[in-house]
Automatic annotation (TrEMBL):
The keyword Methyltransferase does not apply. It comes from Micromonospora thermarum. This is Beta-glucosidase. It catalyses: Hydrolysis of terminal, non-reducing beta-D-glucosyl residues with release of beta-D-glucose. Belongs to the glycosyl hydrolase 1 family.
């Protein structure tokens, strides 16, 4: 357990928590919501470790007021949630489902009534199934449907949402959902998935324009980053590290910040039309950084379809996901972004940072999670150190407020500050919840960033 107090953060630093729609809402067949690719994927036998679906998840759709009250007691200044595209436009395009927007209208008002800034993510992987049936992110038209959805959502909520995030982790959605097939929609394209990258980024740029026309609130994107640790000292190992760096960290950042696509395996420009890169590079106000762990890389064996091999990193504690706990990687990553992009880099907010452990109530019904406290303490110290290094970091959002439905892992991995009994939906704050509450209460707080 940490004993030394955390250093103070700058005035106005935003402490928050994050969730996503499909992972917590449930109510997938209610109030006009249409099917998403995750409904389809989760109901396909063998796709989800425990055979569960997000049909109920945490029942947040019906218990959102209870969850906002938890946030208010926690003292967070902001809540990052996602809006389910299939609730707002069940067919992907076409008519708006007013009942779906009504839910987010109620949620936003409840947050504001409790002094919590709404931070809305427009796409957290739950593509409407009718768009997938028409080609999904392989189809350029999906980017234009996304811009229409952004416009309709901002028309309703733009006067109250304090920060808009267009996409969540487009790299993960491309690589796991379209490259390797372990996430929805389950495509296995490897490097032929590049059109998914470009069309997501095009969608982002088009959505930025739509949001700017509707609201004065700042606009961001949330990218997943992983510092690359090259294991080996050969030229082949170095080349493997560079290839992975281009794929994971630069593919969704270089064009975003006006530098075009990096050189890398499979980054074919055939789907990029004249004017696209200018749309992609529309200025953003914040870069969201989702960080979980660094990645070990070495040269692949001969005949491998990939130009790198991912290898475990030794010497770190492990989470229940078997991810290394490496706060030093977050400071390293923030420094890399600062050095690589210089004046092109907007202010950063850590939009996800968290860990899964096998938390369970004890005989008295309490949930003790000292490993999570140690994790969060270390990562907040890494952020403070990066700020001292000159990186403009203005917020930190814990993943996650609640234990939730964890994609292909179903209900088997718990990330929450609050324990959820999935049979009853009962919420029980963990010891990490109390710790984070005390951190926030003791931090310098100022105007929202």
């Amino acid at each position: 357990m940490p004993t030394a107090p955390l250093p103070q953060f700058p005035a106005g630093f935003r402490f928050g928590v994050s969730t996503s729609a499909y992972q917590i809402e449930g109510a997938v067949d209610e109030d006009g919501r249409g099917p998403s690719i995750w409904d389809t994927f989760a109901r396909s036998p063998g796709r989800i470790v425990d055979g569960s679906t997000g049909d109920v998840a945490c029942a947040h759709y019906h218990r959102y007021a209870e969850d906002v009250a938890l946030m208010a007691r926690l003292g967070v200044g902001a809540y990052r949630f996602s809006i389910a595209w299939p609730r707002v436009r069940p067919a992907g395009g076409g008519p708006v489902n007013a009942a779906g927007l009504d839910f987010y209208d109620r949620l936003v008002d409840e947050l504001l009534a409790h002094g919590v800034d709404p931070v809305a993510t427009l796409f957290h992987w739950d593509l409407p199934q009718p768009l997938e049936d028409a080609g999904g992110w392989l189809n350029r038209d999906t980017a234009h449907r996304f811009a229409e959805y952004a416009d309709a959502t901002a028309a309703r909520l733009g006067d109250r949402v304090r920060l808009w995030i267009t996409l969540n982790e487009p790299f993960i959605h491309m690589s796991l959902g379209h490259g390797m097939g372990v996430h929805a929609p389950g495509r296995m394209l490897l490097f032929d998935a590049f059109p998914v990258a470009h069309h997501q980024l095009l969608a982002h740029g088009l959505a930025v324009a739509a949001l700017r026309a509707r609201t004065a609130s700042p606009v961001a994107i949330a990218n997943n980053y992983s510092p690359v640790r090259v294991l080996g000292d050969t030229e082949a190992d170095a080349a493997a590290g560079a290839a992975y760096e281009a794929l994971h960290n630069r593919l969704f950042t270089d064009p975003l910040l006006g530098r075009g696509y990096p050189d890398g395996p499979g980054f074919e420009p055939g789907v990029v039309r004249d004017g696209d890169l200018a749309v992609v590079a529309a200025p953003i106000d914040v870069l969201g950084v989702n960080y979980y762990n660094p990645t070990g890389i070495r040269a692949p064996d001969e005949g491998s379809p990939l130009p790198f091999e991912i290898v475990p990193l030794d010497g770190y504690p492990r989470t229940a996901f078997d991810w290394p706990v490496a706060p030093d990687g977050l400071r390293e990553l923030l420094g890399w972004l600062h050095r690589t992009y210089g004046d092109d880099l907007p202010p950063i907010q850590i939009t996800e940072s968290g860990c899964a452990y096998d938390d369970a109530p004890d005989a008295d019904g309490r949930v003790h999670d000292p490993e999570r406290i140690a994790y969060l303490d270390g990562h907040l110290r890494a952020v403070r150190a990066a700020i001292d290094d000159g990186v403009d970091v203005t917020g930190y959002f814990v993943w996650s407020l609640l234990d939730n439905w964890e994609w292909a892992e179903g209900l088997t991995k718990r990330f929450g500050l609050v324990h959820v009994d999935y049979a009853t939906a009962t919420r029980t704050p963990k010891s990490s919840y109390a710790w984070y509450r005390d951190v926030i209460a003791g931090a310098a707080q100022g105007p929202s960033t």
